[in-house]
Amino acid sequence: MDLNAQWIVGFVDGEGCFHIGINKNQEMKLGVQVLPEFTVVQHQADEQVLYALKAYFGCGVIRKNHATRLCYRVRGHENLLHRILPF
User: What CATH number does the domain containing 57 carry?
Assistant: First the structure.
């Protein structure tokens, strides 16, 4: 799949989100771990879209989400700050 920026903007507006997970973790200075991530979820029949997004941004992973759904997920400050947010 060859994606263009305008298509990605519209698609992610409807199918994507930014999420910040906060987990208790006593090994962290404040006792919590903060996990920012960018996520797009699709039915497994449309997994090619998720792989195309991964190729476009050059980062992230594809994982099983629930039952027949997959998600494209980007974590890590460097990828979020230098690849996803500038887009």
Answer: 3.10.28.10
